TrEMBL record:
Name used for this protein in its record: Gluconate 5-dehydrogenase
Record bears the keyword Oxidoreductase: yes
Extent of the signal sequence: none
Enzyme Commission number(s) from the entry: 1.1.1.69
Organism: Isoptericola halotolerans
Single GO MF annotation: gluconate 5-dehydrogenase activity
Xref: SUPFAM superfamilies: NAD(P)-binding Rossmann-fold domains
InterPro entries: KR_dom, NAD(P)-bd_dom_sf, Sc_DH/Rdtase_CS, SDR_fam
Record Pfam families: adh_short_C2
Residue intervals of the Ketoreductase domain: 16-195
Family note: Belongs to the short-chain dehydrogenases/reductases (SDR) family.
Source organism superkingdom: Bacteria
Amino acid sequence: MTGQSSLGDLFSLEGRTAVVTGGSSGIGRAIATALANAGAAVVVLARGRQALDATVTDLTDAGCRAAAVVGDLSTRAGIRSACDDVVEPFGEPDVVVSSAGINLRPPMAEIDEAVWDATMTVNLEAPFWLGQRFGPGMAERGYGRLIHVSSQQAHRAFVTSGAYGVSKGGLESLARSQAEAWSPHGVTANTLVPGFVLTPLNRRLQDDPARVAALADRTLVGRNGLPADFAGPAVFLASAASSYVTGQSIHVDGGFSVH
Ligand SMILES: NC(=O)c1ccc[n+]([C@@H]2O[C@H](COP(=O)([O-])OP(=O)(O)OC[C@H]3O[C@@H](n4cnc5c(N)ncnc54)[C@H](OP(=O)(O)O)[C@@H]3O)[C@@H](O)[C@H]2O)c1
């Protein structure tokens, strides 16, 4: 690349294909929308057909290329099927965003095998196996982007972090391992770290307006996060603009983590 690159050279995703797990809701949906608007053909994957179809309809109505794949990332068999199914619409992905996540929040002493297994499988194993499936091909083609969505709970305990915080800590380590393996071949791996974002995931916490206001006060920007706050950072990480950024945890939290 020469010294002067056009905005398009840096940020366009024209000709790229992307898979966004959890792309039917919240942060994942905003990221899928941003990548599609930047020119990528986007596959959104989740369990619920209705929200997937609504997302794809919105994207295709806006002139974007998008497809839905129903998949359940809570078992290894489900992850394997998902890996096979997501290549059907547009072929091998150049960008894989792992936004699907669950936060079950039982008290620490009540975490049983079912909670541990589901949390680790959706939040940590699925991004790992997706990387195993698609990372080597990206490296062979010389371009790839693995983008994970972690949590402030990878860095601090917050509202019964339990297994969830552990899974997110592992996820940021996974990005570093993937970065070490594949960055020499044009494949970067990075993590977006949200603070408190108003999505269905934490609807229960949003029932307490005083709590929501207190969390907003803890940011430097003065408000809680919105899914759209992840659009720009995701396009940056998916595009050529971020070629020299790898293994990083990028906090998209209005300054929550530094306050
Ligand atoms: N909201 C926050 O404050 C916050 C803070 C820190 C980190 N995060 C992280 O951000 C990511 C996105 O969260 P969000 O707030 O946008 O949550 P959300 O609105 O609840 O979206 C979660 C998405 O994951 C999908 N999903 C859940 N379980 C799945 C499974 N077993 N297989 C496949 N897809 C599954 C959901 O669709 P289906 O239910 O239809 O499968 C949905 O599309 C998560 O990794 C979360 O941990 C969020």
